């Protein structure tokens, strides 16, 4: 089974002609409210593919929390690990201008209250999981506790987003560490001495993870472990909205690894799922079923 540990947010989206300046009010279009957050996105993506998936997360005791729980349950995610209360549900306030550029304010809310103690209290979820997948929209000390809570033989997958430097203990557990170009640059920091993504993969591997995946949007992805760098092609599609593509890629790859697939094979499947996700609008509502991935 797959356990995702991470964030759940309500994305509140308003189209505007232009962004307001300080002290100014502008009128926008109708509000759209979407279930989001990288943890919830990954859990929904995996469950849509047919993976037995649980989410460990925290939402508020409010309407946004209920919206998220509803979306997770509709997709078939096990929500016993979705804790309720402590702060309002995390929210992303998103304005989109006519050119498609976003301005986003995130209020982490309940996500920032997902504690190491919450991880320790979820032992049965960890015992039942072959693969555990995390991101960084929850406190870093909680992610450190996730690494410590892994059951023997289970595998840890991390997408360090939003990116920051990572403790050695977390890096050493990653199999793989999954980064896009921006995340690769931040995690490498001063060690980012090349413009070649294959070099980033090798430099990241030297920081301690057992394997590394670098995603390259329409260019596909690179898989890197001690045996070298393997290029995974993307699937050519008509991209409509890339929101949540990385989350879909990661979820699909994590699940496939848990079924025993080789890393390059799992990444190729992730690339197909990511490609399917960019052909539709939104994040969770854009995620394909296994049959839709087959048909791609
Ligand atoms: P992120 O969303 O984290 O920035 P990427 O943009 O690299 O991540 O996308 C993740 C994966 O989704 C890519 O490795 C690729 O397989 C797939 N993907 C993303 N954008 C496209 C696209 N325009 N066409 C085909 N596949 C895509």
TrEMBL record:
Domain Carbohydrate kinase PfkB: start-end pairs: 1-289
Residues reported to bind substrate: 9-11, 37-41, 137, 247
Annotated PROSITE patterns: PFKB_KINASES_2
Needed co-factor(s): Mg(2+)
Catalytic activity: D-ribose + ATP = D-ribose 5-phosphate + ADP + H(+)
Active site, per annotation: 247 (proton acceptor)
Presence of keyword NADP: no
Subcellular location: Cytoplasm
Regulation: Activated by a monovalent cation that binds near, but not in, the active site. The most likely occupant of the site in vivo is potassium. Ion binding induces a conformational change that may alter substrate affinity.
Record family assignment: Belongs to the carbohydrate kinase pfkB family. Belongs to the carbohydrate kinase PfkB family. Ribokinase subfamily.
Self-association and partners: Homodimer.
UniProt function note: Catalyzes the phosphorylation of ribose at O-5 in a reaction requiring ATP and magnesium. The resulting D-ribose-5-phosphate can then be used either for sythesis of nucleotides, histidine, and tryptophan, or as a component of the pentose phosphate pathway.
Protein name as catalogued: Ribokinase
